[in-house]
Please model this.
Amino acid sequence: KANYELFSNEQKKIEMEKHRLDTTLQFLTQQIVSVTEEIGRKTKVIEKKEHVNQIHFWLSETFIPMVETMEKNVMFNVHSQFNTLFEKWFTLLVDTQTLRMSLDEEFSPKILQDGYDTEYTALSGGEKTAAALAYRLALNQILNTLHAGIKTSDLLILDEPTDGFSQEQLDRLRTLIDEIHIPQIILVSHEPQIESFVDTVLRFEKKGNETVLL
Model:
């Protein structure tokens, strides 16, 4: 009987220990499952991070430099064409060997007077107008070249393009209009001489608060 009670107590202790170990095993099993799932999630994050790093590397090391090179080449060609047209139209409007105009790297007019840089404000009224007109014409042609879908490529509207022009420059404007080859040009001007080289003249007069067609 004493041995039975001894063994019974030992059995109870063993069963309690087994229950404790089973509980611990169940907890650890759950922990293993949880850790395994966490490892899976983090593995996917690592793989995604590596994929993003590869994309970032390709964008920064390959794509962006390639686009920058393309942009530089395109802008170089645009600048070259723009500058050629700008110089052409300005030289046609202003016949002087001492004054030259071209475009700098930022597409702003660069003025040389007798070989020296000068400011736009130092130009005469006619020279300023000629520069502005030459720039607008060159810009118009470049935009029409770059964007074939522009619906107004056959139309040019110039508002007071001859402000400050001399008689000689007005004559040169006629030559310029012939050379730009735009089917329809609308000129808004107060210069009577312009009427001599246009096909149709529309006269307007302001009466009170209204502008009427004569």
Summary: The radius of gyration is 41 Å.
